[in-house]
């Protein structure tokens, strides 16, 4: 029997020869491409000593965080500190054959290509975890064929340099997970206010679903898409045998309780923290924000907060003694249509707070009481006791009569400032004066507390270190010393008359200015 006049043996032989030629041609092309690209590839050996960008943190003397500076939020964790469920969630979702391939996954590439061919669009990614690591460390995010080729070659090199656990640890600390969070440690804190070992399976699945599209699947932007993506991750974990059906059902039914969590600042010392930031930047430049510096200051919470309270209380007391300058703004006049609550709330949210002072809008007022809305949607009551100080300001030395009733001071529609005093609310105003305070340890010279002004948001000018004081009587010892050097004594008599010298060039007497 023949096939087109040729024996089956010869046909198979031709097919084998063709296959070998194709393989050799393909291998040669890949080798040639590699030799062409090799000079352009970065040195992956740097991963052995890589230093991830970690923000600078400023601490008090007793180890409490008071400030953090840096564009990226990252909390480095070792692989041992990451729960196995978290690791498995990423592997099941991003690279199910992670432990089987050597940087690139031909099976995954073929599967993704098949899906793209039959569906008409690329719905599955083919990048392995190692390829993603290569892209995050060495390449740009641009979507080009050349970038993908470089990514594949770099992934193979990385697999030759690092073991699987080292690759995973770098990846889980480097990957961007939205909201300026880099790595699973930061993501756990940003979204759930927890450490990675405190996360539930559902929360781990939420985080593991973010690398594909950190904004699209972000629970702070779109809860519906975040839930759908979490369920995909859980489904992948179930199909790969990482969790049981019972675990899947429980995690899938759990609501996602995600909120933005800022860095856990123990207490605020903004003027001192800014001094530290400036000093570190002057010494180390931009690397000050990236190299994970931890700076321990000499202040303590108790003394610093007492200093801040002293400055604010005394500035407010001084300002109140000089009278009330009136409302910050009038949103509507008495008799006009009042604003609705949403418009009031939106207006207040756009206004800053200054220390203990909160913006408020008077929504009702009678002789005994006024009601004021706050930015959080709540309302507070103001009584005569909290505004008896509000004599009308006339000048720095004069004030008007003491008010007798609430409506002598505030009216409906006014935007005012309020502050809480014990359990009551008082009328307030943003002070026009300012102050500063520095407390030093007399034995060591260490700064125990530093306050540069009433409120850092109101003014970042540090009056403790940047203000230039008038010389005043401090000049007297220098004048007296110079006089003694000239032979004068404490008993010397001087003629206390104005000094006058004829200036021929000017054609007039010269007298020193006073």
UniProtKB/TrEMBL annotation:
This enzyme catalyses: [GlcNAc-(1->4)-Mur2Ac(oyl-L-Ala-gamma-D-Glu-L-Lys-D-Ala-D-Ala)](n)-di-trans,octa-cis-undecaprenyl diphosphate + beta-D-GlcNAc-(1->4)-Mur2Ac(oyl-L-Ala-gamma-D-Glu-L-Lys-D-Ala-D-Ala)-di-trans,octa-cis-undecaprenyl diphosphate = [GlcNAc-(1->4)-Mur2Ac(oyl-L-Ala-gamma-D-Glu-L-Lys-D-Ala-D-Ala)](n+1)-di-trans,octa-cis-undecaprenyl diphosphate + di-trans,octa-cis-undecaprenyl diphosphate + H(+); Preferential cleavage: (Ac)2-L-Lys-D-Ala-|-D-Ala. Also transpeptidation of peptidyl-alanyl moieties that are N-acyl substituents of D-alanine
* Keyword terms, alphabetized: Antibiotic resistance, Carboxypeptidase, Cell inner membrane, Cell membrane, Cell shape, Cell wall biogenesis/degradation, Glycosyltransferase, Hydrolase, Membrane, Multifunctional enzyme, Peptidoglycan synthesis, Protease, Signal-anchor, Transferase, Transmembrane, Transmembrane helix
All copies of domain Penicillin-binding protein OB-like, residue ranges: 324-433
TM spans (from-to): 12-34
Q: Which Gene Ontology molecular function entries are recorded, alphabetically?
A: penicillin binding; peptidoglycan glycosyltransferase activity; serine-type D-Ala-D-Ala carboxypeptidase activity
The way it spans or sits in the membrane comes to: Single-pass type II membrane protein
EC number(s) recorded for this UniProt protein: 2.4.99.28, 3.4.16.4
The highest taxon in the source lineage is Bacteria
GO process terms (BP): cell wall organization; peptidoglycan biosynthetic process; proteolysis; regulation of cell shape; response to antibiotic
Gene Ontology terms: cellular component: outer membrane-bounded periplasmic space; plasma membrane
InterPro entries attached here?
A: Beta-lactam/transpept-like, Glyco_trans_51, Glycosyltr_51/Transpeptidase, Lysozyme-like_dom_sf, NA-bd_OB-fold, PBP_transglycosylase, PCB_OB, PCN-bd_Tpept
> What pathway is it annotated to?
Glycan biosynthesis; Cell wall biogenesis; peptidoglycan biosynthesis
Pfam families the UniProt entry points to: PCB_OB, Transgly, Transpeptidase
User: Where does the record place the Glycosyl transferase family domain?
Assistant: 63-237
Q: Which SUPFAM superfamilies match?
A: beta-lactamase/transpeptidase-like, Lysozyme-like
Q: Where in the cell is it found?
A: Cell inner membrane
Annotated Penicillin-binding protein transpeptidase domain residues: 437-500
Q: Which family does the entry's similarity section mention?
A: In the C-terminal section; belongs to the transpeptidase family. In the N-terminal section; belongs to the glycosyltransferase 51 family.
Q: What does this protein do?
A: Cell wall formation. Synthesis of cross-linked peptidoglycan from the lipid intermediates. The enzyme has a penicillin-insensitive transglycosylase N-terminal domain (formation of linear glycan strands) and a penicillin-sensitive transpeptidase C-terminal domain (cross-linking of the peptide subunits).
Please state what the protein is called: Penicillin-binding protein 1A
């Amino acid at each position: 029997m023949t096939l087109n006049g040729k024996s089956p043996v010869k046909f198979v032989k031709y097919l084998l020869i063709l296959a070998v030629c194709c393989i050799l041609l393909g291998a040669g092309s890949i080798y040639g491409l590699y030799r062409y690209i090799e000079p352009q590839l970065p040195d992956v050996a740097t991963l052995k000593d890589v230093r991830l960008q970690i923000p600078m943190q400023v601490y008090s003397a007793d180890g409490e965080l008071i400030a953090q500076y840096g564009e990226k939020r990252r909390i480095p964790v070792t692989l041992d500190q990451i729960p196995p469920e978290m690791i498995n969630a990423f592997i099941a979702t991003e690279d199910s054959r992670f432990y089987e391939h050597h940087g690139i996954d031909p099976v995954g590439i073929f599967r993704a290509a098949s899906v793209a061919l039959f569906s008409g669009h690329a719905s599955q990614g083919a990048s392995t975890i190692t390829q993603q690591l290569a892209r995050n460390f060495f390449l740009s995010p641009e979507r080009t064929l050349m970038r993908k080729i470089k990514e594949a070659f770099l992934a193979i090199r990385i697999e030759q340099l690092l073991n699987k656990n080292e690759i995973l640890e770098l990846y889980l600390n480097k990957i961007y997970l939205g909201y300026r969070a880099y790595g699973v440690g930061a993501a756990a804190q940003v979204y759930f206010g927890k450490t990675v070992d405190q996360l539930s399976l559902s929360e781990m699945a939420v985080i593991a679903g973010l690398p594909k599209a950190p904004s699209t699947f972000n629970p702070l932007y779109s809860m519906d898409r975040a839930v759908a993506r979490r369920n995909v991750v859980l489904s992948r974990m179930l199909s790969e045998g990482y969790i049981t059906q019972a675990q899947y059902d429980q995690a899938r039914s759990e609501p996602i309780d995600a909120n933005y969590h800022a860095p856990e600042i123990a207490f605020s010392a903004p003027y001192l923290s800014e001094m530290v930031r400036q000093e570190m930047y002057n010494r180390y430049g931009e690397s000050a924000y990236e190299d994970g510096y931890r700076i321990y200051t000499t202040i303590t919470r108790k003394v610093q907060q007492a200093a801040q309270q002293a400055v604010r209380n005394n500035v407010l007391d001084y300002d109140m003694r000089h009278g009330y300058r009136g409302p910050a703004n009038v949103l509507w006049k008495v008799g006009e249509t009042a604003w609705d609550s949403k418009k009031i709330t939106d207006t207040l949210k756009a206004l800053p707070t200054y220390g203990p002072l909160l913006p408020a809008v008077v929504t009702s007022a009678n002789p005994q009481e006024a009601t004021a809305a706050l930015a959080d949607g709540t309302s507070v009551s103001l009584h005569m006791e909290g505004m008896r100080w509000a004599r009308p300001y006339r000048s720095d030395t004069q004030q008007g009569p003491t008010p007798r009733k609430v409506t002598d001071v505030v009216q409906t529609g006014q935007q005012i400032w309020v502050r809480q005093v014990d359990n009551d609310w008082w009328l307030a105003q943003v002070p026009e004066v300012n102050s500063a305070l520095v407390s030093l340890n007399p034995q060591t010279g260490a700064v125990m507390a530093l306050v540069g002004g009433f409120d850092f948001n109101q003014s970042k000018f540090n009056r403790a270190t940047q203000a230039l004081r008038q010389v005043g009587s401090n000049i007297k010892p220098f004048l007296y010393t110079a006089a003694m050097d000239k032979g004068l004594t404490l008993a010397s008599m001087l003629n206390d008359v104005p000094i006058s010298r004829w200036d021929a060039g000017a054609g007039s007497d010269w007298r020193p200015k006073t």
